[in-house]
Specification:
89 residues, 4 helices, 58% helix, elongated
Length: 89
């Protein structure tokens, strides 16, 4: 795997993980009883985007590491899935 492919795969993993982490721990203005006039009532009060981006980077790095280990080091690929996943009859 060349470095351009690795960066592209990490980028895709990072965005998927980001969208999984974004709703974690978010409280809306209605839940906090702190609705600002002119804003959406469901808007988050403190989204903590910096922490979520840092957590996303760590989690995406771990997932990419497992992916790299399985594909490059161990040599598994898409063609190996039928041999890995058991058949149910």
């Amino acid at each position: 795997m060349n470095w351009i492919s690795a960066v592209a795969i990490y980028f895709i993993i990072w965005w998927v993980v980001l969208f999984m982490i974004l709703p974690v721990g978010v409280r809306s203005q209605v839940e906090e009883n702190d609705v600002t006039l002119g804003t959406e009532h469901g808007a988050p009060v403190k989204p903590a985007l910096g922490k979520k981006m840092a957590l996303t980077t760590v989690v995406a790095g771990i997932i990419f590491g497992v992916f790299y280990l399985a594909t490059v080091v161990m040599g598994y690929g898409i063609d190996d899935l039928p041999r890995i996943v058991p058949k149910y009859q």
